[in-house]
Amino acid sequence: MFRNLSYKDLAIMALLLDEEENRDRVVSKKRSIWVHDILKKRKIDGEYVTLCKMLEDHEEKFFKYFRMTRFQFNVLFLKIENNITKQNTHFREAIPSKEKLAVCLRFLGTGDSYQTIAFSFRLGHSTVQSIVLEVCSAIIFTLKDEYIPIPGEEDWKRIAKEFWEIWNFPNCIGALDGKHVVIEAPPNSGSLYFNYKKTFSIVLLALVDAQYKFVAVDIGAYGKNSDGGILSNSNLGDEAFPLKKYLLRPYPGPQVREDQNKRKFNDRLSRARKVVEDAFGQLTAKFRIYCRRLNALPKNADTIVMTTCILHNYIKEDSTDVHSREVSSSSSLPAGLITSLNGQGGSAQPEAFENRDKFKKYFCSAAGKLPWE
Questions:
Q1: Distances, alpha carbon 14 to alpha carbons 7, 27, 155, 269, in Å
Q2: 4-30 pLDDT tens trace
Q3: Which cofactor does it need (predicted)?
Q4: Residue 204's beta-bridge partner residues?
């Protein structure tokens, strides 16, 4: 076939074939960084451009969308901006840091899946997931020591004073409780995260002050553990808050039916302990990720949960009207996805029983009795 061709013709054909091969390589390279046409319209049709910026002129709707006021949003952005800002490159333009914060808060506030958020903001699924974890990590790094600091002596005294003034319970430095946060079954985890509700979960153990703020939190215990085991192995465990002597529990049901004074003690204890239940309710009302199964690895779930606890304290720092809205909405929360720990009971030292009896006697005395009792 090629016998009648000259050397010049063969050289030309070789150059043409080489050029075609190079063109195929360029096409293949372009396809490897291909972006869908829908995502290319992020700056025109994305939710951040079409809606988020418009909300800045409507404070109430801004609050409903981001779960915080416009002022709180801007202050939060200034605090973490340096940690989430990326530089533009020749290959791609970085996503604006304020848009990243909007994506993360929308994910936490709605509980929508990464895919749903991705469609709304015209971003890739993996991009949204990385943005959420990046912003959450920045919030923890920047705000944790400021809004969930290690309490000092003056802090404990202030908390005890507030519990007495607001909830009429003396010598109380916090209400303690734990909740299961339901997650997708982690790979290769067996039954470690499988709890008594027959779901997979990590545990949020929290100490709350009289103002519904988190004083200390421990996150990530296996869902299968009992409340006593979680407490003893946590950062809030025996060394800081000895369960045997300094943690009050109500009298059991049979004793209450036979003793009116014990019932009065249980009522006062329940009134003070309700603070931590309400704090969890407000947390769930504000961040709706707790209303659905969290699709994240346990390590990432720990990061997300810690972020919501920090933001809870941050938002409550200077917002009384927000608190009233949260309390009114926390009574109608969906059940089942943030549930109480399974109490296992256990033995207690004699001094623990003596301390409880002292509180009971005080509540039934003239000095400790409330005017409406």
A1: 11, 20, 82, 90
A2: 666 666 566 666 666 666 665 554 444
A3: a divalent metal cation
A4: 179, 219
